[in-house]
Amino acid sequence: MLFGAILTRLLKLPSWVTPALSFNSTTSLPLLLIQSLSSAGILKSLRMSNTDTTSAALKRGTSYFLVAAIVSNTLTYSLGPRLLDHGETSDPDHAEGKPQPQVKDLPDGAQRGQQDAQANGHTNGQATEETSLLPEYTVRRVAEAQENGYRKSKRVWDRLGPKTQSILDLLYGFLNAPLVGAVVGAVIGFTPPLHRAFFDDAQHGGFFKAWLTSCIQSVGKIFAALQVVVVGVKLGNCLRKMKRGEHSGTIQWQPSTIVLLMRFGILPVISIFVIYALATRTNLLPPDPMLLFTLMLMPAGPPATAISSLTDLNESKPEEKMAVSKFLIVAYVVSPALCFAVVGSLKASEAISASG
Predict the structure, then answer these.
(1) Theoretical Cys-Cys bridge with 94: which of 89, 117, 216, 246, CB 3.0 to 4.6 Å?
(2) Separation between Cα atoms, residue 56 and residue 47, nearest integer Å
(3) Confidence grade of residue 111 (pLDDT, cut at 50, 70, 90)
(4) Residue 162 near residue 153 (C-beta atoms within 8 A)
């Protein structure tokens, strides 16, 4: 991440290059890869002993990649928006120079009416997709409670020093969905009664598995596919704009080439050499060939499709969003180049296992 930030500043590259160099696809592509390797019988050479099985090695590899995905997704959604931030305001109306309504200058009655309409999801007196289905009285009370809570917390926030505010703001960025999900999963996994309730069969006390755990697993499996669908929709919008002769963002080949070379060439080579040296000259890593293989392969691969979501969270310009979508498509088109990193990691892991 630090290397990507320095490289972006030195070469004056676009801001999306830093997260593209920092975060790669750690969920769908690696899991599909090791499943394919297992089906082809290649994982037999990564067993810990003759009593170990290929299915057990596959489960360990899946667990290692999922742990890496938790760390990567947590960092992506906590630090990613900061890496994309240009120092400009994130409000698109301010960015475009549009005047903002001054609520404090309105009379009390008009101000309350405007706040009620905004809280209920109405725009200019018309219902929108954000219009609440709850009674207006309930919506008003909820809006008042939120406003009171905001005022009290703002008074406490204003009393803090600038350094304390910046530290708390950074820590708050880590309270995102991946980290919360990881903490909840750890609590459930390490608590035997909860583990039994969520993962055991119904006849053994797993009364959450059939209707809750299976649903969550299904949603989790389609997350990576949905990211690809979102990128495809953005690319479709680019093509329609190109047909109409409008500007739809352009792929800058210099930063794109740098990112692809780093992701498919330089980073895998560095990772293989580092893990090989640690495994052969130190005792820091356990003698698990599957663990060594996954560690060598983790930095390799195309950038994460979540970078497209980061541009939405950062409210980047439409041209930048479309340019990032185009780059991600190109990155996944050249993803078969990952085979060199896979072969190198596999041979290095086998060499370590044979020498041990």
Answers:
(1) 89
(2) 8
(3) very low
(4) no
97's torsion region: left (phi>0), alpha (psi -120 to 50) or beta?
A: left
- Work out the angle at residue 255's Cα, subtended by the Cα atoms of residues 31 and 320, and round it to the nearest 5 degrees: 85
Are 227 and 308 a contacting pair, CB within 8 Å? yes
- For 312, the token pair is 């939405």
**Alpha-carbon torsion (174, 180, 182, 184), positive or negative:** positive
Tracing tokens 């406490």 back to the chain, one arrives at 156
CA distance 284 to 274: 12
Residue 249, pLDDT > 90, answer no
d(CA 221, CA 227): 11
**Residues composing the chain:** 356
pTM, 2 dp: 0.72
- If we measure between CA atoms, which residue out of 21, 29, 36 comes closest to residue 68? 29
In angstroms, the Cα distances linking 21 to 46, 180, 293 are 29, 25, 21
Nearest to 34 by CA among 338, 352, 272: 338
Question: 295 Cβ partners below 8 Å, 6+ apart?
Answer: 64, 271, 275, 285
Contacts of 182 (CB under 8 A, 6+ apart): 70, 74
